[in-house]
Amino acid sequence: MTAIPVAGFFTDGARINSEAKTAQDDMLAILRELQGGSARTTLTISAGSVTPTSGHHAIAVESGSTDNLDNILQTNHPDGRMLIISADDGAKDIVVRNNQGGAGQITTGDGTDFTLSTTNMYMVLLRVGAAWQVIDITFGSNKAGHRTHFGTGRLDEVTVQAYTADDTYTKPADLLFAIVRLVAGGGGSGGTEITAGGEEACSAGGGGGGYCEELLAAAAIGATEVVTVGDGGLAGASGDNAGSPGGTTSFGSLLSATGGGGGSGGTATSGNGQETGGVGGVGTGGNINGKGAAGIGGNVVAGTRIPVSNGGASAMGGGGRASNNGVGGAGNNFGGGAGGSSRVQSLGAQTGATGAGGTLVVWEFKS
Predict the structure, then answer these.
(1) What is the 3-state secondary structure (H, E, C) of the chain?
(2) Which pLDDT value is given to residue 220?
(3) Staple 300 to which of 13, 273, 279, 343, CB 3.0 to 4.6 Å?
């Protein structure tokens, strides 16, 4: 190794030019031995050891596809010097072995051997007396190596799985926890009867689907979970016929929500009539269990329809609007109830409208 000039060397009046030049050359040589002082060069392992000449080296195997690095000889590096090493070939592993004995042995810190398996993995070492202490490791593209070395408890990636139809959820191997959010189908609205002269009719809106949200640890989720997504409720048939309820949405047996109820059909009348809106669905099993809004009832007052029977909203979708004289608006995604239909006098029967289907979303937090 190059010796550093002693303190006061250049201020000593007895120094001659040739000595000063030699000392300056020594300082330049020391800089070239440090990180960034020269380009990385490759050292080939010989009998388990290498002899570094600068601050950054790629390490090549002596033979085969893997080799052990047990000692880094300290000939050219004084106590306190730092060194960066990496693998020369990403297809050949360098196994840095912990405390194998002898001058230049390597202490990995956690007492386990460490493998440099890609060219963008780097190990930083500090010479401490007769040994090298590993003080930092970067893993580059070796994500699996990072998990193995540090454990799987660190958040590395967030992905989303969204479902609008029945399916099966498969838990990722690297899942830490998940947030599951689901909403059930909205209820359909009722149909209306034929209206005679002087009669009008107004059906009720469907209820909004229930909502549920749960934070689940990976251990609480099975290897697979059945995903059931509730359909929107069907429209009530022409005549005084109620819409059907929306379907239930569930994530295995862990959490679920019921669909919104169907709105009642509209009876033709020249007097007063009141139809019942569909009830809102309800979530169960979650940290948050929400209820969908009820559909608004259909009303006729003194033979005149009151077209305000909108569908009930869900947490993820608005209700359909009531019609002034025709089919109500369908429920809006996701889980909105359908709006009520209506008829002025002397018209044929009218169908209701359909509720919106539900959905289920899994936010995956992975290591």
Answers:
(1) CCCCCCCCCCCCCCCCHHHHHHHHHHHHHHHHHCCCCCCCEEEECECCEECCCCCEEEEECCCCCEEEECEECCCCCCCCCEEEEEECCCCCEEEECCCCCCCCEEECCCCCCEEECCCCCEEEEEEECCEEEEEEEECCCCHHHHHHHHCCCCCCEEEEEEECCCEEEECCCCEEEEEEEEECCCCCCCCECCCCCCCEEECCCCCCCCEEEEEEEHHHCCCEEEEECCCCCCCCCCCCCCCCCCCCEEECCCEEECCCCCCCCECCECCCEECCCCCCCEEECCCEEEECCCCCCCEEECCEEECCCCCCCECCECCCCCCCCECCCCCCCCCCCCCCCEECCCCCCECCCCCCCCEEEEEEEEC
(2) 97
(3) 273
End-to-end CA distance of the chain: 44
* Mean pLDDT score, 128-145: 82
- Tell me the two tokens of residue 345: 């006098």
Please state the φ and ψ torsions of residue 26, each to the nearest 5 degrees: -65, -40
What are the phi and psi torsion angles at 134 (to 5°)? Answer: -75, 125
Domain spans in the chain, listed from the N-terminal domain onward:
34-150, 152-367
Mean pLDDT of 39-53: 92
Cβ contacts of residue 343 below 8 Å, gap of 6+? Answer: 192, 193, 194, 195, 200, 201, 202, 266, 268, 305, 325, 349, 350
pTM: 0.66
**Cis peptide bond upstream of 114, omega within 30:** no
* Separation CA 105–CA 124 (nearest Å): 14
pLDDT bucket at 155, cuts 50 / 70 / 90: confident
